[in-house]
Write the structure tokens for this entry.
Amino acid sequence: MEIIQKLIETEQEYETAIGRIDEIFHAPVGSPESDELKLLVVLVQKYEEEKYPLPDVDPIEAIEVRMQELALSRKDLEPYLGDKSVVSKILNRKRELTLDMIRRLHVALRLPVEVLVG
């Protein structure tokens, strides 16, 4: 198997790297294959970020989707955002999330901080 030792620039190189990752995914920590795996993952992530960028996600939409996934009501957000009126203002986009709110939502809803910052 060809080992990639440079940036991934083509779809063929990308597919080769993915295949190699599959082959060495369970390599023992500290082994040469483990080091190779780490490098390949970084190279693949860089290629994917450039070729397949994710669309910007609206923080409020992300919160609402996660609320549906976890079957949460607006009341369930009060410990993380504040009283009923604050939750309403946040979800209706009349008030911005604060840094403390973002931290609490990140932990409670397991949403990436990058998504919540918007």
